[in-house]
Amino acid sequence: MRENFVINPKYSHLAEKLKEVLHNFSKKGEYVTKGERNVIKMVQLEGIAFNIKKFKTPNVFQALVYQHIRKSKAKRSFEYASKLIELDIKTPFPVAYLETFSGGLKESFYVSEHINYDFDFRELIHNPRFKKRNEILKQFTKFTFKLHENGVNFLDHSPGNTLIMDNGNNNYEFYLIDLNRMRFEPMDFNTRMHNFRRLWLSKTMMKVMAEEYAKLYNKSVDGTYALMLHYGRAFQKKINSKKLRRRKAN
């Protein structure tokens, strides 16, 4: 069994304690989420709260791919978070990652600082009367524009992957999570509008966001809205068709 442990220099003094927690993950910390694919726990070390994400154990083929060809999700999460921090784009601070190998990747963990956020983007979708909803949507659009201007193509730009902090005085901060699917590349207008498709925006939300993005990118509001709507509806249709096929199969 071989392992690869990388820790941010800021937390090098906690390296041994953190490794001990990771080696005994099933017995340590409190569950944050316990999904079929991934598990997240929160632990406290020397008064600091950390989130640990344990990724699903890959199958035999995937395990070999992650060892020899492609970076693991844990390593990508750590590296992408570090890159975002360099670009002054908010994400929970990347602390460490651990990979264990035996005939391929066996286990992988990503550790980040825990943040006390107020709500996530999903709440804006489910509650049309959410307080200051339009103002938050405008600021979120500026945040997404900043991603695009910095060549960050966040492939999982979906409602559950943006945490929002309310700082008062109409000031909101946005934190990206679940970072392992991301590309750093120049983004043209089509690619930018395509990047909004997973957010499941209503037409009302799209109108607010299209107007703001058009202003920032010097495009027509109508053209921005039309392209955002085109990609959004195509994605929703695709997902709904998949759900319908699954129901019929069952």
From TrEMBL:
Alphabetical list of Pfam families matching this protein: Kdo
InterPro entries the UniProt entry points to: Kinase-like_dom_sf
Annotated keywords: Kinase, Transferase
Species name: Aequorivita soesokkakensis
Recorded GO MF terms: kinase activity
Protein name: Lipopolysaccharide kinase
